[in-house]
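Reviewer comment 2.1 asked that we show a complete input and output for one of the modelled complexes. We chose the iron/sulfur cluster case, as it is the one discussed in the main text.
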Amino acid sequence: MVKKSLCGLTAEEIYNLISPSGFNLSHAVSITNSIYKKRREEISGFAKIPQKLRDELESFSFSGIFQPAAYEISADKTVKYLFRTDTGKEYETVCIPDAKRNTICVSTQSGCRMGCRFCATARYGFRGNLTAGEIINQVISLPDAEKITHVVFMGMGEPMDNIENVLKACEILTAEWGLALSPRNVTVSTVGLTSGVETFLRSSLCNLTLSLGSPFAEERKSVVPAEFHYPVYTIIEMMKRYPREKKRRFSLAYVMINAWNDSDSHLEELKILVGSSGIRVNLLPYHPVTNDPNTSSSSERMQYFKHNLIVSGISASVRKSRGSDISAACGLLAAGLK
Ligand code: SF4
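Response of the prediction step:
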């Protein structure tokens, strides 16, 4: 019999597994607490459940928590972890410590099939979806997991291309019986697959970020092929229409490339696209992949964009680069994988 991973299951799913033997929902919640809050790798270490239940769990399941295969530490203390599953899937996770927050950037797929031009993960190709358990394990298996305050789905893969597992991971991250993070501290990033975005907006209260590339549709097609099938303006219209609950944040990620998407006409088009929607714009430095002659816009140019967006009534920020020396920065994950 193939044993089942408990990590990745909801309290209700665990209850459904154990209730035929007479165990109740509070036993199921004790199990999720042992996995998601206490991060017990062995079922023998699960607390507040009878030994009979531990024995039963051992017979058909395992915790599903496993350690990274390798890690690298950046000069700025960002840490990149490599995970490898029993089936050979590889994927990377980045831990970004900061003065007031500790953020984990998780992968949702091994590789990616979206083919974005400026992304190392696209070059790696698509090797498979990650399960909800494999996504959650990237958070709970790390040292200092209890200090994590924010989770962003911005690692390898397109989250909306693996929407069921991503939604389940968001539920586990935010549920009281799970990691109990605020949905405001969980952000999912996408290039904009319409049906996935629609499902996500309807089913989750977590934040959403849309990767733009360019505000001009034809230009965006040359770097984000998803634009051919899922025009960005339809996604933005969907975000504008959706009621904003409990301070849920919608944003655009705009990676700025020198003399490519940082002209005044790009700035004006960006303003038109965002308008008075309340969508925030995060401006990010560009990190070239191997053999790419492009460079990042200067910090002065990024500040110029930020200033002009703010003056136009659009909330904007310039994000710092983290972990670029270990290929952990935005767009560089999978650069070292074969
Ligand atoms: S940018 Fe994101 S969606 Fe595009 S190829 Fe890279 S990982 Fe996939």
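The chain has two domains: 4-62, 70-326. We note this here for comparison with the apo prediction described in Section 3.2.
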